[in-house]
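User: structure tokens for this one?
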Amino acid sequence: MEITPTLKSQTVQNRVREVGINPNYWYPAAWSDQLKPNQVIPVVIWNMAIALYRSENGQVYAIEDACPHKGIPLHKGDVTGDNITCPYHGWQFNGDGECTSIPYFPKDQKLPCAKALSYAVREKYNIIWIFPGAIEDAENVELPSVPEYDDQNWLAIPIPGHFQAHFSICNENTMDVFHGYLHKNLQGWFNPELMSLQATETSVEAEYRVSYQGWMSKFFGFSDTGNEVTTRTVTIRYKYPHYHSSLEGVSSIYLMRQPVGIQLTKSFSLLFIKIRLPQWFVKPLQKPIAKIIWWFVLKSFLDQDVEMIESEQRTYLANPQRRYVEINPAIIALQRVIVGQYEKFMQQSKKLSNGNNENYASSSTVVKSNLSST
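Assistant:
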């Protein structure tokens, strides 16, 4: 649906700062190269504590970070083969969460039915992804597509993000190109204009026209000296729950959110840029160049965003009843998607719960009938 890109006053619905996630999507959990064989780390996706571990042969598993015996965090244990061992009593569990061994249990007895919840997990783009919804639904949901990842014409720069804020606030920052004013001392973009806006129940796409001047203009290759004002189009696509933003073939960023809890969000982003250097020079030095650009160019922008995002969260918590006014229709459209996806999941859960209750009631009726007939 196309939306008129007119800036006008609208009241923000504060419930967007309280909603949870729709878990029936893939969420980033960790960088792949940071999880070594025989290693286990704790991750949290919307208050779901998960023990993420890599087996001796390199396979990654994700199970509930609580031993079914005493509730001890499994991430404090060891990895043995394809199993994870609880540090308290030595119970072992496989990647499906099933108990496979208890060191002091009689060998001739069947192991108790002790099982931890397991999650679907994949590795792609040097990111480990977890599907926190029903594991049987994971195969029907695709991971975000990142075609630049295997294209040697692009320099890939991993960008970690950590925000003490609700994921909706973080998402609004990404959609809000008008906040270029914040980065004025870094010679960021200026004179932003919203050109077009489209939205569905799962996505928002906005096109902005922005201007550059100074060293950023020279860095992106818009001009040789950086003195000229250059205007470009920024396209931002939010497809729940992740982002893709591009700057007219010059840069492309994929921003994947990990909602940890109501006041904590992490990001796993991949920025791709084209730099004016020969491939024979860039390829062997790709990682050092990426680190230099991150630390000396990009981190300053992110630090300023983090300060604003976390400040917004603190102000909201101090007075959740305060009313806020928004004039960017792209932000309002984004909020509708976030709230809508959460409500959709809650409605589906309610229907499933009601169905289970009806099945239980039906089963109880049959049992009572059978008992009466006897």
